[in-house]
Specification:
140 residues, mainly alpha, de novo design (two linked rop proteins)
Length: 140
């Protein structure tokens, strides 16, 4: 049986944890970064699970895949912004590396989900997914 709700997806669950971590680490960025890097990192982090959820609510697998692609773009933004934060010494290198590793894993899951959705879409004439026909839980 497939997954029908975004909350059941491991990639959504892990991206929600990433949001929490980003909010925790950016608290220490200081007042000068309130509308700068802090806001950009938080916005990009929130975008990942939000795009997964919005895509899941769409009526076609191809639309869903487009939102998963946007989530992948947000992961790339987060990675870049974490690197900037570490270089500016707003964030300890070890913390940045831990979060970058998590971003990499979430990115792999998103790529798997994207491929499954696009493959499903290409195999169906109607492009209307029967969610129990496909598994949307990314593999290892």
């Amino acid at each position: 049986m497939g997954i029908s709700h975004y909350r059941d997806l491991v990639v959504w669950q892990r991206s929600m944890i990433l949001v929490e971590r980003i909010y925790q680490i950016t608290v220490d960025f200081g007042i000068d970064e309130r509308f700068g890097l802090m806001a950009q990192l938080r916005r990009a982090a929130v975008s990942v699970p939000s795009n997964i959820a919005e895509g899941n609510a769409r009526r076609s697998a191809l639309d869903y895949a487009r939102f998963v692609s946007m989530a992948l773009g947000s992961i790339a933004e987060i990675e870049t912004q974490l690197e900037i934060a570490a270089r500016l010494e707003l964030l300890q290198r070890e913390v940045a590396e831990e979060l970058l590793s998590e971003c990499k894993e979430i990115g792999k899951m998103l790529l798997t989900l994207d491929r499954k959705l696009r493959s499903y879409s290409a195999s169906k004439v109607t492009d209307q997914p029967e969610w129990d026909e496909i598994s949307l839980v990314p593999g290892p």
